[in-house]
Amino acid sequence: MEKEIIARANMTRYSTANHVEFHKLGAGICVKYAAAIGSQSLIDGYEAAVVKESEVFKWIRRSEFTQKKIQADRRRDDLYRGLAETVKANLRHFDPQAYNAACHVDNLLKGYGDVVHLNYDAETASIDSVVVLLRSDSFVDDAQLLRLTPWINELEIANNEFKQYVSKTAQEEIDRPDVSPKESRRRSDVALRLIIDRVDAMITLNGDAALTGFLAEYNTLAKHYNTLINEHYGRIHIRTDIAGATIAAIPPQPFNGQPVYAIPEVSLRSTAPDGSEKVVRLVFITDFTVGYKNNFQPGTATLTVVGLGNYKGEVVTTFNIVIND
């Protein structure tokens, strides 16, 4: 049933311009099939939200620093999500110490709620607070054990960069619309979601015969914009399997009474579109994470590299843990 495609129009990844264009066309389709949808109030609300978002977009285009601020906000959103996902991944860690550390940090993050959907000021304050706490005596050992330090540092940099753009846009804020770009996007998405929910309910109760035209046009629109975004982000290709990756030999690691965590050098040979071959050096945390076994004492430890992001699969190697004389 095509309604599943309607529900998954990937609007969160649309650029500001694409988001406005999509909703303008979406509102036009809803107006065209208003009689079939049967709720003029929902359609009026959707149109009003789209008009407001269009006004905000026009203001953004006139602003020198606003677009940079929005990009900085998206970067800190991505980093915060990445940090939280790294913590959650360690909730399945075989090492009890790592598991307990992940639980401790996860409970901290839960206390702040859905940070990336807060307003600008609240998100900035929350990220500042999280960074300070993760560096405090209460959490610093957990953060180091989970290898969160790079995430924390990058998150702080992104948050500070966002603050700088906020100060630079002080004059521009005088002409700012009464809602933020993020909020105007959310209102358009919510208004459309209400209409889609109604359509889904009508199909469930009465079938889709009365809504065939709406479904055909809206699905075509959703597929078109999702394809544009997929092409932009390079997400149409299948994630690369790292099963054939090369792990550089890990030198013997000294045992100091604590679990040993070696970070491997991982490379993958790939073929470019022109047929030439190249070797890609994978980046820890961005492209892969690492799991360990038998790394608590001298002997042979097992290290498993697991693909992340654009990479999937896993590859295993071993390294020696030795007692230095």
Tag the structure with descriptive keywords:
3 domains; globular; alpha/beta; 3-stranded antiparallel beta sheet; 11 helices; 325 residues; disordered N terminus; single chain
Protein described:
By secondary structure, the protein is an alpha/beta fold. It folds into 3 domains: 3-63 and 172-233, no CATH class; 66-168, no CATH class; 240-322. The protein is 54% helix and 13% strand. The protein has 11 helices and 9 strands. A hairpin with a 5-residue loop joins β4 (266-271) and β5 (277-281). The chain starts with a helix and ends with a strand.
Q: Largest beta sheet: what is the strand line-up?
A: 3-9-7-6
User: Strand percentage, roughly?
Assistant: 5-15%
Task: Report the radius of gyration as a whole number of Å.
Answer: 25 Å
Number of domains: 3
Low-confidence stretches: 1-5
What is the count of helical runs?
Answer: 11
Inertia-based shape: globular
